[in-house]
Amino acid sequence: MPNPVLSLRNVTIYQDNTAILKEVNLEVNHGEFLYIIGKTGSGKSSFMKTLYADLKLREGEGIFVEYDLARLKDRDIPYLRRKIGIVFQDFKLLPDRSITDNLLFVLKATGWKDQKDMLEKIHEVLGKVGVNNSSNKMPHQLSGGEQQRVAVARALLNDPEVILADEPTGNLDPQTSVEVMQLLREINQNGKTIIMATHDYALLMKFPSKTLKVEDGTLFEVVQRTV
């Protein structure tokens, strides 16, 4: 039997003291590509935040990249996050630093020391996402699609087991959205597990994969053609 990268049992997800999602039962195996869909405000982001420990798991059992989410200590959160990469809708690049310095900041924050090793890693991940020629530019000098490619590169820095992508195409035009999706699918085909929250049903039709829907406080699998 495969060892799942994510296992949730009878989980209820809370935002403050309000139960957003109830009775969540889910297993995600290594190498899967999973969509989480639903309307804005349905609980997709709360689900993702629980996985990367921005929201505490208060009810149920959850194991993610071998960490027990219900018993996770504050001191363990940085170690959990080193095993995952996170891509946000709004890129979250530091505006006052070059692309190289944005990525150096992440590497230093996660324990890297050697400057040569760090620069080699940055060159590697920027090459993977096709923006190596932008390493010395500032974020505002890049298009939205290029900024999101940098955000994907940042998520790859520590060779994570899983990438969590929370509406990664939400601020992009349709053509650029397709390009970013092609990049994510390529990364997935190279062995990375990807869990992606989205409300862009057009992308689901173009890049079909296992899909779960958040609706009325529940999370359930949907057949692709009925989305």
Automatic annotation (TrEMBL):
ABC transporter domain span: 6-227
Molecular-function annotations in GO: ATP binding; ATP hydrolysis activity; transmembrane transporter activity
Pfam families to which the protein is assigned, alphabetical: ABC_tran (PF00005)
Record-linked SUPFAM superfamilies: P-loop containing nucleoside triphosphate hydrolases
Keyword DNA repair: no
Record's function text: Part of the ABC transporter FtsEX involved in cellular division. Important for assembly or stability of the septal ring.
UniProt name for this protein: Cell division ATP-binding protein FtsE
Organism of derivation: Flavobacterium cyanobacteriorum
